[in-house]
Amino acid sequence: MAADATSALPVQLVEQPRLQKLKEMFISKFGSAPKFYVRAPGRVNLIGEHIDYCGYAVLPMAIEQDILIAVEPVKTQVLQLANTNSSYLDFSTSVNNIQINKTKPQWHNYFLCGLKGVQEHFGLNNPTGMNCLLDGTIPPSSGLSSSSALVCCAGLVTLTANGKTLSKVELAEICTNCERYIGTEGGGMDQSISFLAEEGTAKLIEFSPLRATDVRLPSGAAFVIANSCVEMNKAATSHYNIRVMECRLATKLLSKSKGLDWKNMSRLQDVQTKLGVSLEEMVSVVEEVLRPEPYSAEEICKCLGISLEELRSQILSRNTQDVSTFKLYQRAKHVYSEAARVLEFKKICSEAPANAIQLLGELMNQSYLSCREMYECSCPELDRLVTICLQFGAVGSRLTGAGWGGCTVSMVPTDKLNTFLKNVKKAYYKDDVQRLELEKNSLFATKPGRGALVLVEA
């Protein structure tokens, strides 16, 4: 687990057409050849939505789609970034004193997060300049972690170019923290699976301390990703951070009601740990302490005995300070019940009963209902896509990623896979010209892929 993240894998470029093409484009762009390549995968979360930032374990796997960057360290302290997709504009800046614009989540700012995070970790006063050409196959803003894969890729690029080494766990933690430079208050799932993934297995990712455990998925089912084609950028809206704050506020109110030191409690898991009760009991605590109706900011201040100014400056994030009402009961109930579903999912995979596929499918369906009803992070297109997937043979289907758009993941018995793909394609994509154009990269079965790595020409 503590393997060095920078150990390079030699590859024959002639056997890797995508790498060969990237090298040729790099030479055409910069007039010289790249010295190494870095790849970081996207991910699909099978179960455990919106609970990593509350301290709870999640169950993702890496997918084949990835971010691939060709890199040449240079003598000048200048970063030149280019993208094989011409809709992403070239960018250049000094590698000293990196500035990241939180108000515009443009593609290069995610690269700068990874760069800045590694530089600050090592206190690099004389960082290496770089020419970088990026090629991405993860659909953007689709809930498959394209932005975090780019942050991770950039962190590994910077580490390698500057001749530094870190374990995969250390690099995952740095990349989790540095993505906050762009304003996303994430929990670390995306970065952890990007580095810790191994081919052929999903992972139970636990936090504090970060660790990953293999989860062998049942052989009789495939996981199918379907993109709703509704884009959702976490950093461009406040939906995501509002949910993070609602969980934080629920933590404070639950703690205060139980006589705990609420000022030092920020995650829902902290409350469970301090009370020493089960997740199921925490659901009962939520029902006893919190009410389903929304709380106003003023009510929360009254409950905690603080001023509105203290609430805004000490608890809320920058882009949630003007929110006037918060749903605490629903968010906390989702988190505790979802955390229990993750552990149950892993248990079923470990014990492999005869009806494992059916049981896992039911957990995925319960997770989706909770995301839709309690966390309110679905949207009409995702709802329709889940209905279609279940109608055509999925035993379980749910939104994956932040929600409000992006993808669903469905568990489909392998003997029904081909008819499932054909029917979903017809029902969801063929009736919409825009979706039909995107359909090739929007509906696919996936297997657990490998994590981030450095590649060099053999």
Task: Report on this structure.
It is a single chain. The chain is an alpha+beta fold and about 450 residues long. The protein has a domain at about 10-215 and about 450-455: 2-Layer Sandwich (Ribosomal Protein S5, domain 2), CATH 3.30.230. A hairpin with a 4-residue loop joins strand 7 and strand 8 (about 210-215). The chain has helices at about 15-30, 105-120, 145-160, 170-180, 190-195, 240-255, 270-275, 280-290, 295-305, 310-315, 330-350, 355-375, 380-390, 415-430, 435-440; strands spanning about 10, 35-45, 60-75, 80-85, 90-95, 130-135, 200-205, 210-215, 220-225, 295, 325, 395-400, 405-415, 445, 455.
SSE topology:
Layout: E1 8-11, H1 17-30, E2 36-47, E3 59-74, E4 78-83, E5 91-94, H2 107-122, E6 129-136, H3 146-161, H4 168-178, H5 189-196, E7 202-206, E8 211-215, E9 221-227, H6 239-257, H7 268-275, H8 279-289, E10 295-296, H9 297-304, H10 308-315, E11 325-326, H11 329-351, H12 356-373, H13 380-391, E12 396-400, E13 407-413, H14 417-429, H15 433-438, E14 443-446, E15 453-457
Parallel strand pairs: 1-15, 4-6
Antiparallel strand pairs: 2-3, 2-15, 3-6, 4-5, 7-8, 9-13, 9-14, 10-11, 12-13
Helix pairs in contact: 2-3, 2-4, 3-4, 3-5, 4-5, 6-7, 6-11, 8-11, 11-12, 13-14
